[in-house]
Design a protein that fits this description.
Elements (H helix, E strand, L loop, with lengths): L1 E8 L2 E10 L4 H13 L4 E12 L1 H16 L3 E5 L3 H9 L2 H4 L1 E3 L2 H6 L1
Parallel strand pairs: 2-3, 3-4, 4-5
Antiparallel strand pairs: 1-2
Helix pairs in contact: 1-2
Amino acid sequence: MVVKTTQTDQHTWVLGFSGKLNFHSRQAYQQAVNQAEEASARLIVLDFTELSYIDSAALGLLTLTHRKLTTKGNRMIIANPQGSVRDILLLTNMDKMFSIVNSVAAASQK
């Protein structure tokens, strides 16, 4: 998995993921999220446009990240998941826990 990190403004970070988000890529995911948190990000947008696969370990990571951020008064939004990644997120009701939007631009508007 490859993570591309972009700071769009003082408090918004976009983390773009490509490849597979699974048990084996959890450290790269966590490093990117930690970097954004340490930079005082109030909104972390997870751009899943190029993410091709997600497993149950990744769903657990998303849940833990969401809980950790909301405890601190911060937010996480998933942007533009495609195909089976979107299907899995919706099937597991992740959209009830945090926002899933169709683009990074839409995430910035929330």
